[in-house]
UniProtKB/TrEMBL annotation:
Protein name: Integrase
Domain of life: Bacteria
One Pfam match: Phage_integrase
Signal peptide annotation: none
Xref: SUPFAM superfamilies: DNA breaking-rejoining enzymes
InterPro entries named in the record: DNA_brk_join_enz, Integrase-like_cat_sf, Integrase_catalytic, Integrase_recombinase_N, Tyrosine_recombinase_XerCD
UniProt-listed PROSITE patterns: TYR_RECOMBINASE
């Protein structure tokens, strides 16, 4: 039987079971206390008795994340980036807290402190990593916890997504600036980004054995979201790759490093006199152009690799006046 009461400005939940010591925990809100109590009671029912919290009591956040980084992170597509996120969390005082005592207040405090230094998207990724590590511990490593405190914490609100597109004359100026770059691959990288919607990392990881010029398709075995996909290659891209293949028939299509491309891009952008344009904006340009050519949402998602179709909404740039023409037949005024 659970008892919820307010004690010294906080809400305390206490769960009693015959033959077991009472379990109690304090929360900021009554809703959190009730949720914890329900979760603990459900745990009692599943286990037929008192849950064994000793492992959770003896395991710190640091120990959890260290094991997670060694066993789980290497299996992921973005392993390097996740390892960096884990290093950041391990520098924070939250690392000393045991999983048994880790509360939503601890997680919220980490969130708020990190938001003073980095953007919301970075913090969301870090919280997701911590949350997934806790879930793995609960489901696979035998660490008994009444709840995952990360799930009780609000995620930071993301700012409006970027919708920067190329303006009149910018495409020509940009390509001219890239052609003048000392990085001889930059021009082709930019063209392919604008034509295919591929990310910079995907372009730089592309290998000739995954390019079928006859079929007009490039296969990406490993992408940001962990899923493979095939990308159709336009005539412009096929011609460009045909020339490059003559120079290098096997191995990677591009040999530049990400940092080398980043530096070359910035110099070319300044040379072209273009402000506020990022390399990733070329993906937005490409995806938006797919819609303008008449492709539907599912077709565009197949090319771009978006797993959530709602994420494509900001690429459509639809106007009510344009949609009216599709809703109503042309009026006969004769």
């Amino acid at each position: 039987m659970a008892t919820i009461r307010k004690l010294r400005g906080k809400w305390q939940a206490q769960v009693r079971r015959k033959g077991a010591a009472p379990q109690a925990k304090s929360f900021t809100t009554k809703q959190e206390a009730e949720r914890w109590a329900r979760s603990l009671e459900a745990e009692y029912e599943r286990n037929g008795g008192l849950p064994d919290y000793r492992t959770a009591e003896q395991t710190t956040v640091a120990e959890l994340l260290t094991r997670y980084r060694e066993e789980i992170t290497p299996t992921k597509g973005g392993a390097d980036k996740e390892a960096v996120r884990i290093r950041v969390i391990l520098r924070h005082p939250i690392r000393h807290v045991s999983l048994r005592r880790l509360s939503s207040k601890d997680v919220a405090g980490y969130r708020d402190e990190r938001l003073k230094a980095v953007g919301p998207q970075t913090v969301i990724h870090e919280l997701k990593t911590l949350s997934h590590a806790i879930e793995i511990a609960r489901k696979e490593w035998g660490v008994v916890m009444a709840e995952n405190p990360c799930r009780l914490v609000r995620r930071p609100k993301l700012p409006q997504g970027r919708d920067r597109r190329l303006r009149d004359g910018e495409r020509e100026r940009l390509l001219a600036g890239c052609s003048a770059s000392r990085n001889r691959e930059l021009h082709d990288l930019v063209v392919m980004a604008m034509e295919t919607g591929m990310r910079r990392g995907e372009l730089l990881s592309l290998r000739w054995e995954h390019v079928d010029l006859a079929a007009g398709v490039a296969h990406l075995p490993k992408t940001k979201n962990g899923h493979s996909r095939d990308v159709p290659l336009t005539l412009v891209v096929r011609e460009l790759l045909a020339v490059r293949r003559g120079e290098s028939p096997d191995g990677p299509v591009f040999t530049s490093s990400e940092n080398g491309v980043r530096l070359a891009w910035e110099r070319a952008r300044r040379r072209a006199g273009i402000e506020g344009l990022r390399f990733h904006d070329l993906r937005h340009e490409a995806v938006s152009s797919f819609f303008e050519r008449g492709l539907n949402v599912v077709e565009v998602a197949t090319i771009s690799g978006h797993r959530e179709l709602r994420m494509l909404q900001r690429y459509t740039h639809l106007k009510a006046v344009d949609l009216l023409g599709k809703l109503e037949p042309a009026m006969d005024v004769s």
